[in-house]
C-alpha cells in the first residue's frame, strides 16, 4: 500500500507514523508551506517531498485541483492529513472518499476547528483528547475511527495540555492507519465506524492507552 502524507508544520505525527513502521510505503510528504519543519523529517527518512504553496493560487478550488494532481502523481492508496491546516473543497474530499484520514486535537464533535486546547481550558472540561476520523465535506465531522482521552488538570495551560494530547495523537494515528491498511475498518449503515477483529466480527473501538 502507498501512503501520501500532507502536512503544514512541525510533523510530529508524521514522525510517529514513520516510527510505527507500518506495512505500507510513505511515498511522499507534501506541504502547503515551504517552511514546514516536517519536510526535514521526511527528507531525513529518505522520503520524497513536495511543496505546493496555497498562496500561489487565486482560489481554494484551483489550489485543491493542483493538490489532487500532485497527490495522484504518487498513486496513493491512502492520503493521511497530519497537521494539514487547510479547509478542503468538497471535490477534494469526494475524490479521496474512504481513503482520506485526519487527526484532530479534540474529542470530536466537541471543539471542531482551531484553538481546541484553549477552548477546552476556557470551558473547564475535565476530559479532553484527540480523534482520528475519515474526512467528509463538513469540517471535522467525518466518521470517527478512534479517540483517546486525557485528563485536564487544574494546573494546565495550553502548552501542558497540548503536549499531553499530542502524546496520545502519536499513538492513535499509527493505530488507525494500521487498521485501515488491514481493511479492519467498516462503515455501518449509519455511517459509523466499526472495527473488524481477526475473525471478521465487529468489536468496539475504545483506546485505553495499553
Ligand atoms: C496536531 O496536534 C494535529 O492534531 C493538529 O495539528 C497538530 C500538528 O502537529 N491538526 C489540526 O488541528 C487539524 N485541524 P504535528 O505537525 O506535529 O503533527
Structure description:
- By secondary structure, the protein is an alpha/beta fold.
- The protein folds into two domains: 1-96, Formyl transferase, N-terminal domain (Rossmann fold, 3-Layer(aba) Sandwich); 104-210, Rossmann fold (3-Layer(aba) Sandwich), CATH 3.40.50.170.
- The chain is built from six helices and ten strands, in the order βαβαβαβαβαββαβββ.
- It has helices at 12-19, 38-44, 60-72, 90-95, 116-123, 158-181; strands at residues 2-7, 25-31, 49-51, 78-81, 100-104, 127-134, 144-151, 185-187, 193-196, 202-203.
- Helix 2 (38-44) links the parallel strand 2 (25-31) and strand 3.
- Helix 1 packs across helix 6.
- Bound molecules: glycinamide ribonucleotide (GAR).
Helix content range: 25-40%
Succession of helices and strands: EHEHEHEHEHEEHEEE
Please state roughly what percent of the residues sit in beta strands, choosing from under 5%, 5-15%, 15-25%, 25-35%, 35-45% or over 45%: 15-25%
Q: Ranges with pLDDT <50 over ≥5 residues?
A: none
Domains (count): 2
Shape: globular
Main sheet summary: 7 strands, mixed
The rounded distance between the terminal residues' Cα atoms is 27 Å
Remind me, CATH topology of the largest domain?
Answer: Rossmann fold
**Neighbour order of strands in the largest sheet:** 3-2-1-4-5-6-7
The CATH architecture of the largest domain can be named as 3-Layer(aba) Sandwich
CATH hierarchy, class of the largest domain: Alpha Beta
CATH homologous superfamily identity of the largest domain: Formyl transferase, N-terminal domain
Average pLDDT reading: 95
The ligands bound in this entry are: glycinamide ribonucleotide
Amino acid at each position: 500500500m502507498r501512503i501520501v502524507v500532507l502536512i503544514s508544520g512541525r510533523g510530529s505525527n508524521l514522525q510517529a507514523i514513520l516510527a510505527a513502521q507500518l506495512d505500507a510505503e510513505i511515498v511522499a510528504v507534501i506541504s502547503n508551506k515551504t517552511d514546514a519543519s516536517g519536510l526535514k523529517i521526511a527528507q531525513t527518512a529518505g522520503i520524497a517531498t513536495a511543496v505546493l504553496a496555497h498562496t500561489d493560487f487565486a482560489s481554494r478550488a484551483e489550489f485543491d485541483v493542483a493538490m489532487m494532481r500532485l497527490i495522484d502523481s504518487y498513486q496513493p492508496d491512502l492520503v493521511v492529513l497530519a497537521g494539514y491546516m487547510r479547509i478542503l473543497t468538497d471535490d477534494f474530499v469526494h475524490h479521496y472518499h474512504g481513503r482520506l484520514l485526519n487527526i484532530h486535537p479534540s474529542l470530536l464533535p466537541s471543539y471542531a476547528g482551531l484553538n481546541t486546547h484553549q477552548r477546552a481550558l476556557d470551558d473547564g472540561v475535565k476530559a479532553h483528547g484527540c480523534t482520528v476520523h475519515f474526512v467528509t465535506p463538513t469540517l471535522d465531522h467525518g466518521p470517527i475511527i478512534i479517540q483517546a482521552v486525557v485528563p485536564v488538570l487544574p494546573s494546565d495551560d495550553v502548552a501542558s495540555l497540548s503536549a499531553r494530547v499530542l502524546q496520545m495523537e502519536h499513538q492513535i494515528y499509527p493505530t488507525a492507519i494500521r487498521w485501515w491498511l488491514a481493511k479492519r475498518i467498516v462503515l455501518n449503515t449509519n455511517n459509523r465506524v466499526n472495527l473488524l477483529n481477526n475473525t471478521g466480527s465487529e468489536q468496539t473501538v475504545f483506546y485505553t492507552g495499553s
